[in-house]
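ok so I'm stuck.
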Amino acid sequence: NAMAVLDAISAGNGSFGEIANYTGLSDSSVNESIKDLVSMRVISKMEHLPTPTKGSRYVISDLVISFWSSIADRYRSVSLMKADEPYDAMSQLISTHLGKAFELYCIDLISSNYPCTAVGQWWGPVPQRDAEGRLMKGPEGKVITEYADIDVVATIRQGNARIDLFGECKFTGPPMGFGALNLLVSRVRSLKGGYNVRYALFSASGFTDELREYAEENGILLFGQRELLYKDEMPALR
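replied:
not stuck anymore, here's the structure
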């Protein structure tokens, strides 16, 4: 049963109901398997923030098992492929795996270095916008939505103040620029609720000079290589 639950999660079925539907197991069997996997730290519960009442989902937090269940187990016959075929077939899955692992690392980084009362992610529908930022509408005038997520969400207590931190993660590629920040800001602004918003950007490739200057002037937290590896102090909230 535990392997069936892992298969379900690696296939993108993170909520309890999705896992039960995917596996065909009874609720009690799913619940027991989840408890066992959580106790062994193979999976962990990801809270939906900043509104935890909207549910949660499970993620595979053991990176070796995550790699096996989401990639290696799907390509057991790589020995029968030609030299370049295994990597070509798995490259996108590997990129996705590394991206998710980086998100978990960044969530843990925030949880370990700031006075958080809750950490997690956000996921759900957001309105689509055109290149100029205008809402896109269908033939009947209804706003077109798409499914999206926010990689890092944390509720932080600083004195008597509550701070809602929203972050975007990027593990590979060129230095992060305004595109990532604008996307994050757009998604956060689509959320309903009065939040005391702070933004954080995490990039293993660093940031453009223009973004660094803007972040310094506007209190945006930047986590580059040195911060991610604890070689520099963590950025201060302000």
